[in-house]
Design brief:
With about 300 residues, the chain is an alpha/beta fold. The chain has 2 domains: about 5-180, Rossmann fold, CATH 3.40.50.720; about 180-295, 6-phosphogluconate dehydrogenase C-terminal fold (Orthogonal Bundle), CATH 1.10.3660. It contains 12 helices and 9 strands. Helix 4 links the parallel strand 4 (about 70-75) and strand 5. Helix 4 (about 80-85) runs parallel beside helix 5 (about 105-110), helix 7 (about 180-205) crosses helix 9 (about 225-230) and helix 7 (about 180-205) packs across helix 11 (about 245-270). The N and C termini lie far apart (about 60 Å). The model has no long low-confidence stretch (mean pLDDT about 95). The structure holds NADP nicotinamide-adenine-dinucleotide phosphate.
Length: about 300
Amino acid sequence: MTVAGRFERIALIGFGLIGGSIARAARLQGVAGEIVTTARSEKTRARVAELGIVDRVLASNAEAVKDADLVILCIPVGACGPVAEEIAPHLKPGAIISDVGSVKGAIVRDMAPHLPANVHFVPAHPVAGTENSGPDSGFAELFINRWCILTPPDGVDADAIDRLRAFWAALGAKVEIMTPDHHDRVLAITSHLPHLIAYTIVGTADELAQVTESEVIKFSAGGFRDFTRIAASDPTMWRDIFLSNKDAVLDMLGTFTEDLSKLTRAIRRGDGEALFDHFTRTRAIRRGIVDIGQDSAAADFGRPLPQIKKS
Ligand code: NAP
């Protein structure tokens, strides 16, 4: 019996947090016959070979995609166009070509023109991640109970979409389909803007003259440290995200700035009611996230409590 979502040969272009997690999860779930991977640097390729999760690790993207039924680009968004151009002549007819990029409009714009008509292009974004990167950072459980958004262009074969949906479901993800534009607007507010705010606030704290750096670090449990986790995310990946999703991010940033001004005014005027109402509304949003299982209900994100030592 064939396992739902199984592909005979999968080529992963890039083996970092996401590529490495896909490889580990696909192995565990038995949805990959052979897994071939590439990485840009010799250092990463050597480490991937040492890890022994995939069958073959190659330097050539063109070589890796030969005879692959599923090709997934797991590299920064800005690198996807040139790599699509490089692999296009070597793709197997009927193969599904996908990616994991955090922006979808730019991926469709940069990749689609290079791909031949005899392959199925189904862009994807697993909305799952951590602040870590590199070949050792991945883990098989990353996608469990997380969303994976597919953004197939009009006219893509329905069977190819179903096969990719089944693959992501086998890795534990819940799958949703959206247009690239809608995806980019949703992610601008749920992911890209929060990262921009974290990058800003951590930078601001670093530049403060009145509070010393050691004090910022020492008292970070007051809220700051939760921003530092996000602000530790990969600089290349996030540079590419902001450059590729410029319009939606600027749009959301405009709305955010207006809302920030409203809260600033409430503080200046001593308008406690406005502040209280706003914070009550935001608390309900957090509870909604916990209720649908997108985060733990445990206090402080489930960080372990320190133990009192008995004397
Ligand atoms: P990562 O851990 O830094 O791994 C990136 C991989 O891409 C590495 O194998 C790297 O090779 C390779 N690479 C980097 N630049 C390249 C280039 N110019 N050409 C070809 N290969 C290149 O990154 P990641 O977190 O897995 O992110 C990969 C993709 O997943 C990004 O598009 C990102 O938007 C998306 N994504 C990330 C997250 C997240 O939380 N991290 C979540 C969802 C989606 P070397 O190791 O040899 O440099």
